């Protein structure tokens, strides 16, 4: 598989975050307010332009109202067992 920042796991993560934000009836702006950041940061994360680390995932998940472990479990289902870094 060619190297890309848009791995199957990264794509799954962004889709999950967008879906869960919308399920929580939050706009990007309202999520940004909860995170105390700019809406443009939320947009970059959701578009895959900016990757997040595990601590940021926990903070974002809590702001959306979903357990971070649930997000990780859903991503784990998508990432092939032989995926490389």
Automatic annotation (TrEMBL):
<feature type="domain" description="HTH cro/C1-type">
    <location>
        <begin position="17"/>
        <end position="71"/>
    </location>
</feature>
<protein>
    <submittedName>
        <fullName>Helix-turn-helix transcriptional regulator</fullName>
    </submittedName>
</protein>
<dbReference type="InterPro" id="IPR010982">
    <property type="entry name" value="Lambda_DNA-bd_dom_sf"/>
</dbReference>
<dbReference type="Pfam" id="PF01381">
    <property type="entry name" value="HTH_3"/>
</dbReference>
<dbReference type="InterPro" id="IPR001387">
    <property type="entry name" value="Cro/C1-type_HTH"/>
</dbReference>
């Amino acid at each position: 598989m060619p190297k890309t920042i848009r791995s199957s796991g990264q794509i799954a993560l962004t889709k999950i975050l967008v879906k869960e934000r919308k399920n929580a009836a939050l706009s990007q702006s309202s999520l940004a307010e909860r995170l105390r950041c700019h809406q443009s940061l939320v947009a970059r994360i959701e578009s895959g332009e900016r990757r997040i680390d595990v601590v940021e995932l926990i903070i974002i998940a809590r702001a959306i109202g979903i357990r971070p472990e649930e997000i990780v479990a859903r991503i784990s289902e998508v990432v092939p067992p032989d995926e490389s870094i």
